Amino acid sequence: MPDVRLASPQGRWILLTTVLGSGMALLDSTVVNVALPRIGRDLDADLAALQWTVNAYMVTLAGLILLGGALGDRFGRRRIFVVGVLWFAAASLLCGLAPNAGTLIAARALQGIGGALLTPGSLALIQASFHPDDRGRAVGLWSGFGGVGAAVGPFLGGWLVDGPGWRWVFLLNVPLALLCAPIALRHVPESSDERAHARFDVLGAVLGAAALALLTYALIEARTGTWAVTLSAVAGAAAAVAFVVVERRGKDPMMPLDVFASRQFTAVNVVTLCVYAAFGGFFFLAALQLQVVVGWSALAAGTALLPTTVLMLLFSARSGELAERLGPRLQLGVGPLLCAAGMVLMLRVGPGASYVADVLPALLVLGLGMVTLVAPLTATVLAAVDTARAGLASGINNAAARAAGLVAVAALPLLTGMGEEAYRSPRAFDDAFGPAMLICAGVLVAGSVTAFTTVRRPAPDCRRPECRTHGSVMAPPLEGERARDEAV
């Protein structure tokens, strides 16, 4: 049984290193959007390159995050966590030194691999190290500090872009990693799952990531109408079919398809796809709209987006408590409608927009919607499966959210007719931004209808989330497996 107490020096070191590790990945997911206009200018990149700057990271992270957790269980959670931290730092260094857009995109894909190793590992280390009496509080502190990092991210990113330069958005990860890795090696006990074995679903992970990458390429480059686009679309669809076949027939699939036999689990993941597709598209385009069209600095744009994260950080735990009393369906139905209303209000944000009169009301309504739905979403995912599969269910839901976001970033410019140079023209970008917000609002309404018609109240003895406080706007919180002593 794990016996580290939270109040001990070792417990504080474990909490620090896990917060630093997960914080690196969380910061990158919130600050890169703010840096995109400056990256485009400095590297002479078109809109497609900016889309790939976001999506290259998301493709490898979404495709490999389930495999990353399994590797930690088998080969040692501390070992894989430290490898992920150092990998992420090396890829971040390459991002910061990238001489051109192609190198930056490749480095971002490598960053996603590091993120897939360290993100599930940070939570797993807490659950495997702390005494059961302290584990809930440790997870709460870990998620709370992560939320603070997410709130600081856009402000910090804007300050770095306007000050030292956008490259420091990535270079900042290097000293954090050099602090995090030695602390982990010195103070975190190694742990693994004795029930784990040497077989890994590498083929499934490769096929999943390949399907995402090929379909994303087809969407981003569709405006060119070349044979490469057609071939990528066909190959992506084939890879997706092959992924389903492998997961259905494999002995140890990373995503067992029988988990979708639960109608509730399937329905909540459909809601997740709708919600996080809209969020991914919104935060990609809103950071550009505020800088390209409204004319704000990166710091002003990053700071402007803070209300959504702050509201989630302050009220997500209370929203979860409310869902436990009332059941999740009401909040999962109303939350997306509030978010849709916030995106419709963003239609007021154009040239000469006022923050107080135009931007802030939209973000407050959007943030209120996010607070309303995120905690019940996680709770319903966990309640829809057996307790022993809670970590798997949470990982699938998290990967689905990230995949939905990357598809939205790839598809929205195509659907709204954005040209390759649209982000250089305030008028062209503004003309496409409005339709994009309406599309996002429509997707959210579809998610609301799905929730109202399919979600049911969980059983009273179902698994409850450990991550009560949440500040990330890009994906629902990860939940790990219960410690083995609790599961047996």
Automatic annotation (TrEMBL):
InterPro entries: EmrB-like, MFS, MFS_dom, MFS_trans_sf. Residues 460-488 are annotated as: Disordered. It comes from the Bacteria. It is found in: Cell membrane. Pfam families: MFS_1. Keywords: Antibiotic resistance, Cell membrane, Membrane, Transmembrane, Transmembrane helix, Transport. SUPFAM superfamilies: MFS general substrate transporter. Residues 14-459 form the Major facilitator superfamily (MFS) profile domain. Residues 460-469, 479-488 have a biased composition (Basic and acidic residues). The chain crosses the membrane at residues 12-36, 48-68, 80-99, 105-126, 138-160, 166-188, 200-220, 226-246, 267-288, 294-317, 329-347, 359-384, 396-416, 436-455. Its main location: membrane. It is a multi-pass membrane protein. This is MFS transporter. It comes from Streptomyces ambofaciens.
